[in-house]
């Protein structure tokens, strides 16, 4: 009877301080101590944003014929999908939205539409228009809820391992150095399989070159935080027997052959007495300058450290590009110095221009890494903005390539505890408050909230603080139910979206480790089943 029926189940979100801050070193989110929950951070205060009010239902949607025609188009599009693309994939582009839960995808599409001044819910991210999609089960060998290390082993090497480890089987326990260096426990990545087939390879990330997700293409470590020799030593291990990831990337197969490496994290490659291109000292204890090593190994390659240098690369006459655009991870795009740090789309464009020169094709891994980092900070606005930057890079990659020969797969490694909650009206600002419901305490609540995080917005009496009128901006922290140092990953399935040769294999509910095997099948690489096998091809 009342204009809206509300389940007033959720009674949470209550405030003490309002705060926010710049990007923090995201290592803290992923360090093994933190997985057991211990970090404390301080945050600064924030500035103003207007809370959105919902828009009226678009006029055409009141006509049932509108929806029937939307459905008719869907039927026709799905019938089209019966024409299977069974070409051999020359190229593979894998896009990884770190922490890009399905709630993140849905919220990001709303923000995309609302930035065009539409209601938003009806909009789509580029990859949502891909012809085929599946679900991916993200648990790891010893973890119900995964991290970005063991998931990288799954979706890049095709084997599930233990949490915090990368490129090694589940025989390797956390921090067991000797086990990780045993070749019998190391598992190779689809980047290595592609190199064997003569393809060009590489990766791009918005985090560091030695961060967990991209490291799945090249590293074998018992601890994702072995990014430099100093890091290895900080865990009581000897870098002489347990090689750090920066060292592995530059000197070992398959990393040493990568044609493209772009992201942040320059400090891991330089000795502590040398300043990097961003004015900060390196952190290596072994005196190695891995950037010089890389340049000596690749006389036809080019090293770039800012956006202008990247955009000036003549991709027709360089063999390799190493781009490191910050000392630590790159900054959140929304708050970055755009004259210094390129966008994910800009990095993607330069990389593809170079890679497309190889007539045998290429494999590249491209990560939107700060979708996750921002979720850890419960900064939903930043996370959605990063998702839209990721979306732009994917659209560009699809526009630059031919679906007849280039397979693009978009997925996430794991979810995050973000929820889209209540019964907000159509077109309500996805970053604002639900204008159509109150908590049992009579106060409004934000449509987006997290399960765990730093701010419950509860006052000293245990009462929820009134969020209405509290200024917020894209950098603001959203409420969480359980107080924790940061937001945590979630264990529900994530989406897999595919376009190109054998995209129809990406269907159903998949074990995450099947993903690289499906890509390899389409491209006839690796040691598993491929479409080139006589006994499999049909
Ligand atoms: Zn994370």
Protein model, in words:
The structure is a single chain. A ten-stranded mixed β-sheet has the order 5-6-4-3-7-1-8-14-2-15, with helices on both faces. It has helices spanning 27-30, 32-35, 64-80, 102-114, 148-157, 177-181, 190-196, 212-215, 229-234, 245-251, 290-297, 307-311, 344-355, 370-376, 380-400, 514-523; strands at 91-97, 132-137, 200-208, 260-264, 301-304, 320-324, 362-368, 406-412, 415-416, 418-420, 448-453, 480-483, 489-490, 494-499, 509-511. The protein contains 16 helices and 15 strands. The longest helix has 21 residues, at 380-400. Strand 5 (301-304), helix 12 (307-311) and strand 6 (320-324) form a beta-alpha-beta unit. The radius of gyration is 23 Å and the shape is globular. With 538 residues, it is an alpha/beta fold. The model is unreliable at 1-27 and 31-52 (pLDDT under 50). The protein starts with 26 loop residues before the first helix and ends in a 15-residue tail after the last helix. The structure holds zinc ion. Residues 29-30, 99, 148, 372, 376, 489 line the site of zinc ion.
The gist of it:
By secondary structure, this protein is α/β, with parallel strands linked by helices.
What distinguishing features does this structure have?
disordered N terminus; 538 residues; binds zinc ion; alpha/beta; metal-binding; 10-stranded mixed beta sheet
């Amino acid at each position: 009877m009342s204009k809206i029926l509300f389940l007033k189940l959720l009674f949470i979100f209550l405030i003490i301080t309002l705060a926010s801050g710049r990007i923090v070193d995201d290592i803290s989110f992923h360090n093994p101590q933190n997985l057991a929950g211990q970090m404390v951070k301080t945050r600064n205060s924030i500035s103003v944003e207007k809370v959105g009010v919902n828009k009226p239902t678009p006029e055409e949607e009141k006509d049932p014929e509108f929806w029937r025609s939307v459905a008719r188009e869907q039927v026709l599009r799905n019938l089209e999908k019966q024409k299977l693309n069974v070409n051999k994939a020359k190229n593979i582009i894998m896009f990884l939205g770190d922490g890009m839960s399905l709630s993140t995808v849905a919220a990001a599409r709303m923000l995309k539409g609302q930035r065009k001044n539409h209601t938003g819910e009806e909009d789509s991210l580029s990859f949502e228009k891909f012809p085929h999609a599946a679900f991916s089960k993200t648990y790891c060998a010893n973890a119900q809820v995964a991290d970005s290390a063991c998931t990288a082993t799954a979706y890049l090497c095709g084997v599930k391992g233990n949490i915090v480890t990368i490129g090694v089987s589940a025989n390797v326990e956390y921090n067991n150095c000797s086990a990780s260096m045993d070749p019998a426990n190391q598992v190779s990545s689809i980047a290595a399989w592609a190199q064997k087939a003569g393809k060009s390879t590489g990766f791009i990330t918005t985090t560091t070159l030695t961060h967990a997700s991209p490291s799945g293409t090249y590293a074998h470590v018992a601890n994702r935080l072995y990014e430099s020799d100093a890091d290895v030593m900080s865990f009581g291990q000897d870098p002489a027997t347990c090689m750090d990831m920066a060292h592995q990337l530059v000197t070992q197969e398959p990393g040493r052959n990568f044609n493209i490496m772009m992201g942040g994290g320059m400090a891991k490659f330089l000795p502590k007495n040398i300043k990097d291109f961003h004015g900060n000292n390196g952190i290596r204890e072994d005196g190695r300058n891995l950037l010089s090593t890389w340049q000596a190994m690749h006389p036809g390659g080019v090293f770039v450290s800012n956006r202008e240098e990247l955009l000036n690369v003549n991709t027709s006459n360089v063999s390799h590009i190493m781009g490191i655009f910050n000392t630590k991870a790159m900054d959140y795009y929304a708050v970055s110095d755009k004259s210094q740090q390129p966008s994910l789309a800009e990095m993607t464009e330069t990389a593809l221009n170079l890679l497309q020169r190889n007539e045998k094709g290429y494999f590249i891994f491209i990560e939107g890494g700060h979708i996750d980092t921002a979720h850890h900070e419960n900064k939903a606005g930043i996370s959605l903005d990063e998702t839209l930057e990721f979306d732009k890079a994917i659209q560009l990659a699809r526009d630059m390539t031919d679906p007849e020969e280039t397979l693009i797969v978009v997925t996430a490694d794991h979810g995050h505890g973000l929820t889209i909650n209540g019964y907000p009206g159509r077109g309500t600002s996805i970053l604002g408050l639900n204008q159509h419901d109150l908590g049992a305490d009579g106060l409004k609540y934000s449509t987006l909230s997290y399960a765990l995080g730093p701010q419950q917005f509860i006052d000293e009496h245990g009462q929820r603080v009134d969020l209405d009128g509290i200024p917020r901006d894209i950098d603001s922290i959203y409420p969480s139910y359980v107080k924790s140092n940061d937001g945590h990953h979630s264990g529900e399935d994530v989406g897999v979206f595919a376009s190109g040769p054998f995209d129809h294999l990406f269907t159903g509910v998949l074990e995450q480790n099947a993903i690289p095997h499906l890509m390899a099948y389409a491209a006839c690489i690796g040691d598993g089943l491929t479409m080139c096998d006589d006994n499999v091809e049909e």
